[in-house]
Amino acid sequence: MLIPYETLLQLPKETLVNLIREYLLGQVEDGSFSSLDEQELSQAIVQCQQALKQGKLKLEYSEDDESFAIRSADQIAQQQD
Fold it and tell me: Where exactly are the structural domains of the chain?
């Protein structure tokens, strides 16, 4: 289930930042980023917030394992095909 951006705005700011931080750390692990220091992380969080607002990234809730994940809109569209 996709969570609308408007709903994300109702979350405590810290919760949204933690979701984004988890997403970014996963990107480091799979090689999308070489490393992430605190300054880069702060910049990446802002960029992710903008991408969520623009719909390039989406927050998805998995009912199967009761977890949340940020994924690219393209990745979600491919999976639905």
Answer: 2-26+40-79
Q: At what angle do helices 38-54 and 13-29 cross, to 10 degrees?
A: 110
Higher pLDDT pick, 56 / 29: 56
Dist. CA 38–CA 73, nearest whole Å:
26
Quick: pLDDT tens for 5-26.
999 999 999 999 999 999 988 8
Extended strands (E) in 20-66: 57-62
CA 10 → CA 1, 16, 31, 63, 72, distances in Å? Answer: 17, 10, 32, 21, 21
H or E stretch including 72? strand 67-72
